[in-house]
Design a protein that fits this description.
By secondary structure, this protein is α/β, with parallel strands linked by helices. It is built from 8 helices and 7 strands. The two termini are 30 Å apart. It comes from Xylaria multiplex.
Length: 254
């Protein structure tokens, strides 16, 4: 059973309607948090996600869904403003929205480079800039990285994705010093291969099975396992953890 250590906390989760983001939302909702779910396109999936939160049942006083492009600073500011208008503050920010195009150097395009860095790096940075003035001491900023960022034997198609997450990890280290002056921690959770739609996109079943079999546990991680790590980092119990990249990978990439 989830603890209630997040009771009363206000948590923004970008890309919160599917996969890891949805699992995080369900976990922190069960721990008593009010949840703001951001989505970019699928309104029906967003409403279904809100309705699935265990402690709200879609209750309007504990949940908010906001359509916004998480790579666009203007829309990010609107997300923050709507959150503060409803709940008065932000306690935890989970910058989960991301994209993972698989293109090797030969096939990489400038437009893919720009859009990937915009969503994976620019979005989390400017979301933190917009949200942090509304975060009290004890606030938490949580980025999502990947084990691929520190593993050298990855396939060539991951080069762009790994570069964006390397940038996120360095932002984590530097922003932890910046926001630490306000009593706000900054960390990143770095999943290994996790069974989500985003992970499966563009991969054959044989490739997915091969990746799973390479793990010592002979399987992929699950979104709920990543959500448990994020919930700890979001909690008051993680007060002396900041500037860290926390692997959640079942001993992969070590």
């Amino acid at each position: 059973m989830a603890s209630n250590s997040l009771q009363g906390k206000v948590i923004i989760i970008t890309g919160g309607t599917k996969g890891i983001g949805l699992a995080i939302a369900q976990r922190v909702s069960a721990a008593g948090a009010s949840v703001v779910l951001n989505y970019s396109r699928d309104a029906s999936a967003a409403e279904a996600a809100i309705a699935s939160l265990p402690a709200t049942g879609g209750s309007a006083d504990r949940a908010l869904v906001v359509k916004a492009d998480a790579s666009d600073p203007a829309q990010i500011r609107d997300l923050v403003e709507r959150t503060v208008a409803k709940f008065g503050r932000i306690d935890v920010l989970v910058a989960n929205a991301g994209t993972m195009p698989l293109q090797d150097l030969e096939h990489l395009t400038e437009s893919t480079f720009d859009s990937t860095f915009a969503l994976n790096v620019k979005g989390p940075l400017f979301l933190t800039q917009a949200a942090s003035p509304h975060m009290p001491p004890g606030g938490r900023v949580i980025f999502i990285s990947t084990g691929v960022a520190r593993f050298s034997s990855v396939l060539p198609g991951y080069s762009l994705y790994a570069a964006t997450k390397g940038a996120v990890e360095q932002l984590t280290r530097v922003l932890s010093k910046d926001l630490g002056r306000k009593g706000i921690t900054v960390n990143a959770v770095a999943p290994g291969p996790t069974d989500t739609e985003l992970f499966r996109e563009g991969k054959s079943e044989a490739m997915i099975k091969g990746i799973a079999s390479a793990n010592p546990f002979n399987r992929l991680g699950t979104p709920s396992e990543i959500a448990e790590v994020v919930a700890f980092v979001a909690s008051p119990e993680s007060s002396w953890v900041s500037g860290q990249i926390i692997g959640a990978n079942g001993a992969a990439f070590v």
